[in-house]
Amino acid sequence: MKFSASKILIVSIAILLAGFLAQPALAQKSAQKERPGDWPMYGHDLASTRFSPLKQINTENVSTLTQAWSYAMRPGGAGPAGAAYAQVTPIVVDDVMYLPAGNRIEALEPETGKEIWRYELKSGLASARGVAYWPGDRTDPPRIFFTSGHKIIALDPHTGKLSTGFGQGGE
Fold it and tell me: Helices H, strands E: what count in the chain?
């Protein structure tokens, strides 16, 4: 059976298009396994839809919103200018917000800003971009990952301690 170049091109485009169209649906299914308020990665889900299924804020009440809490990103007012931390995209997993803040990683209650735990680097700063969550597998526990300089560091999301099963002592 002979296929012309145009038929092969059309079939290839159709396969690629089907794959691209399926990604948001797969990402939504993946996100549905999480709690509705979770924002486990930059862009919210694997398709990076940046869409939240939460309904508390809408076009009718957005104008009445007020600040619920704030959080100092610089440790004790020291470190780089606060504008450097405007790049941070916090993540929320299982009702805990994780974010870098200067020389530390913080776990906060998203409703109140109350600190749950803090991991402080011995030297250097955490990446000003954010952290990543990995849910774990059958043999390894979940982890929060971030970078500092040339290192990737893994933390236990429940305690904020180094995840010693990763790398050399968590780094």
Answer: 1, 7
For 19, phi then psi, to 5°, come to -65, -45
Q: What is the pLDDT of residues 16-51, one digit of tens each?
A: 555 555 444 444 444 445 677 888 888 888 888 888
What's the DSSP call for residue 164? T
Whole-structure pTM value: 0.74
Torsional sign, CA 95, 65, 56, 89: negative
Cβ atoms of 71 and 108 within 8 Å: the answer is yes
pLDDT per residue as tens digits for the range 126-139 = 988 889 999 999 99
Q: Are 143 and 137 spatial neighbours (Cβ–Cβ below 8 Å)?
A: no
Nearest to 145 by CA among 98, 88, 103: 98
Helix (H) or strand (E) holding 19: helix 5-32
Sheet strands side by side (includes 104-108): 91-93, 96-100, 104-108, 115-120
**Spatial CA neighbour of 35 closest among 25, 43, 44, 26:** 44
